Amino acid sequence: MKVPQINIIGAGLACTEAAYQLARRGFQVNLYESKRITKNPVQKQDNFAELVCSNSLRSDSLTNGVGLLKEEMLAFDSLIIKAAYASRVPAGGALAVDRQQFSTYITTWLTKHPNITIIDQEVTEIDPTVLTIIASGPLTTPKLQDKIQKLLGAKYFYFYDAAAPIITKESIDFQKVYYKSRYDKGTSKDYINCPMTKAELERWGQELIAAKTVALHDFEKEIYFEGCMPVEVMAKRSMQTLLFGPLKPVGLEKPNGERPYAVVQLRQDNAIDTLYNLVGFQTNLKFSEQKRIITMIPGLENANIIRYGVIHKNNFINSPVLLNQFLQLKTHQNIFFAGQIIGVEGYVESAATGIISALNIAKFSEQKELLEFPPETMMGALVNYIINASSTNFQPMKANFGIIPSFDEHFKTKADKYLAYSNRALAKLTKFFNFVENSWWNKKIINMTIWKIILFKIMILL
Predict the structure, then answer these.
(1) Reported confidence tier of residue 91, pLDDT bands at 50, 70, 90
(2) Fewer Cβ close by (within 10 Å): the C or N end of the chain?
């Protein structure tokens, strides 16, 4: 039987993980990467899986969403996580790495594998009849951008990431806020409203205007579209700009009939009703400043921000419209996507989707049933979020417990609850292994119990 060939476009975290997963299962992989020919504005190395921002893969604890995600990835013998532990540097409870060692580890493995052909070339054509994973990253080359646009439709491919902060519902003080849609359109619980008095708005607005912003790269210094103008820019124009914009109080009377001077609206952000985004709050403020400004809003004093607002040059697709639960393009079934381009945020999240996409394109090539990860796992929850999020207000998401189905029972502490989430996820993942027929997975990994997964991690650390 002829071994299927699979094209992978890009050699970032998602692509290198996908190439590894496919190669070790016997598939022939063509890995396309243009950085050795011409680099984008943030690339410095010739090695693959380059970490261009932080050198941290964030928390290593099972009481943190990304810590759980790492554990799940270890069950698949993740190249990215193995490379991270092999190049680890001291960083307290975080998994931080030596960038050069990390990328060298990954590049060396891929270069030496007989099933991987590395092609130093910019992709300028996408053939929808060829099995392909596209994970070209947040700064896709202009020619490839054009081809992806033509493949997907221009309105589904974004060039500027203007995202509002997202908070957990459980951190909202419902003694100070109320449910209401403007003019009572839709259902009564479409929005949560945080009312402000004139004095509260003026004090808050002064702090917003004075807050520190993030310095943009030269290639990001573009004129803001009116539709995604940072909230701090609106405030600097005038308070009236806010009152006729995202803080407009008209049609949002309180339950007692009183109209507040201003209203900050929160919109439901996920299907399981655990996350809410701040409507119209695209921002370029530093994260610490966002925390300070948001917690000044009545009802949000204890806001748990699980995704901060950003405005920067980026490429991502409208995944809720375009992809199914297997990260497969609905309109062209030979094409799969992975990485930041699908709307996940973070190094680990990008690599995790590389695993999901690789396993499913492999199954698809063999005409076998594709794999839908349990929503209780972090890998499954990420996919569940990006394909079920609002298609008109889609914003990238990182690993967090807010996107996982909640428990009905009460826990004494958040740490207890999050550990319970992790234990449930790892148990579900073990069962998921066992229910997959004709899998390529190593039986030792299939039969791992939760404690064996943890032992596997300890062995890597040693």
Answers:
(1) low
(2) N
